[in-house]
C-alpha cells in the first residue's frame, strides 16, 4: 500500500533548549497547539515526531497554547534553536 501523505503545518520554532532536563521552548507563530497533538520537529540535524504530553506557559501547566505563546515541553531528542515545529 502507498504511504499515506500526512498533512503537516508549520506552527512555530524552537527558541531555546535545556539539555539537562530535555525541555524545548517553542514560540507558537500560528494556530494553536494542544496536549495530545502530534508534532514533527525539523532542522539541519533534527528530524523526529512525538506526541505533546504536557506543556507549560510561564511555569504553569496548560492544555492549549495559542499564537504568541512561548511554550516549554519535554522532547525525546536534542533540538536546536531555529528548528521548525510542525503540527501533524
Query: Major beta sheet, specifics?
Result: 6 strands, antiparallel
Number of helices: 0
At the first level of CATH, the class is Mainly Beta
- Distance, first to last CA: 21 Å
CATH architecture: Beta Barrel
Please name the CATH topology.
Answer: Elongation Factor Tu (Ef-tu), domain 3
Shape category:
globular
Order of helices and strands: EEEEEEEEEE
Would you mind describing this structure in some detail?
By secondary structure, the chain is mainly beta. The radius of gyration is 12 Å and the shape is globular. It has one domain: Translation factors (Elongation Factor Tu (Ef-tu), domain 3, Beta Barrel). The strands form three sheets. It has a six-stranded antiparallel beta sheet with strand order 5-4-10-1-2-9, with no helix packed on it. Strands 3-8 form a two-stranded antiparallel ribbon. The protein starts with 8 loop residues before the first strand and ends with a strand. 0% of the residues lie in helices and 53% in strands.
Amino acid at each position: 500500500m502507498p504511504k499515506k501523505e500526512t498533512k503537516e503545518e508549520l506552527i512555530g520554532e524552537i527558541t531555546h533548549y535545556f539539555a539537562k532536563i530535555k525541555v524545548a521552548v517553542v514560540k507558537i507563530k500560528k494556530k494553536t497547539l494542544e496536549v495530545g497533538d502530534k508534532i514533527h520537529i525539523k532542522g539541519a540535524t533534527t528530524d523526529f515526531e512525538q506526541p505533546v504530553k504536557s506543556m507549560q506557559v510561564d511555569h504553569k501547566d496548560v492544555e492549549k497554547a495559542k499564537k504568541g505563546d512561548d511554550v516549554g515541553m519535554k522532547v525525546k531528542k536534542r533540538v536546536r534553536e531555529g528548528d521548525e515545529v510542525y503540527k501533524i
